[in-house]
Amino acid sequence: MVVRIDLTGKKALVTGSSQGIGLAIASGLAAAGASVVLTGRDAAKLTAAAAGITGEVTTVAGDVTTEDGTAALLEAVPDVDVLVNNLGVFGARPALEITDDEWRRYFEVNVLTGVRLTRAYLPGMRDRGWGRIQYIASDSAVTIPAEMIHYGMSKTALLAVSRGFAKEAAGSGVTVNSVIAGPTHTGGVEEFVRSLVGDDLPWDDAQREFMRAHRPQSLLQRLIEPEEIANMCVYLASPLASATTGGALRVDGGYVDTILP
């Protein structure tokens, strides 16, 4: 049996897709035949990212963490078949030093942005009888890191949000899932690793020290590459995943030490 993923004729929107995991997901969806919309605040970065993707790609620059930014996106892209809520922020902060404003920011960016877009796009998907919505969560959703519990809180919320919207979409042909990504090699994570282990070590040594000291339960024992996260997302976006909904699918390198999330 040969497994072929064909998304020809489908339009996919990936938030936070000018770099990192979002860009890898967009590239994977385009490679499967989807027309892809990249979003982000920096128009120049979006243009550069789009130039590296083979396939039909458009870009919409703007801040979708705001209602006005979301309205502008919806005007430019009124309907999609695949929505990947990837946009998120993270960073280390001692628990007792996290301010009210930081708590609000992490919820508004990491959770409410995806909720707002789901609320906008799900009805059209349901009317057409087909759609795929994904939330990019994290191992931090179920293994809360002591150094960034505000981030963990936001990713735990995504598991609840995706399960709830899956129920809203029940029986419609629309699936809603979250993807639990493990520690992944991106530019932002490189900075995060350096903030914890210092700048003196070569990158390979710094990565190994980070995994040893801060993520020792990883069975992969290395950072995951963005393309490995994208592979799961492309599958979930495909007709092959028609019976997978309301789930939390793990691409965590065995980081979470449970059989189920």
Structural description of this entry:
The chain is α/β, with parallel strands linked by helices and 261 residues long. It has two domains: 197 residues, 3-Layer(aba) Sandwich (Rossmann fold); 39 residues, no CATH class. The chain has eight helices and seven strands. Strands 3-2-1-4-5-6-7 form a seven-stranded parallel sheet, sandwiched between helices. The longest helix has 29 residues. The protein is globular. The protein starts with 10 loop residues before the first strand and ends in a 10-residue tail after the last strand. The model has no long low-confidence stretch (mean pLDDT 95).
Biggest sheet: strand arrangement:
3-2-1-4-5-6-7
| Fourth-tier CATH superfamily name of the largest domain | NAD(P)-binding Rossmann-like Domain
Low-confidence stretches: none
* Tally of DSSP β-strands: 7
Question: Could you give a short account of the major beta sheet?
Answer: 7 strands, parallel
Tell me the distance between the termini.
Answer: 30 Å
CATH class identity of the largest domain: Alpha Beta
Secondary structure blueprint with pairings:
Layout: E1 11-14, H1 20-31, E2 35-40, H2 43-51, E3 57-61, H3 67-76, E4 82-85, H4 100-128, E5 131-138, H5 149-168, E6 174-181, H6 187-197, H7 203-214, H8 226-237, E7 248-251
Helix pairs in contact: 1-8, 4-5, 6-7
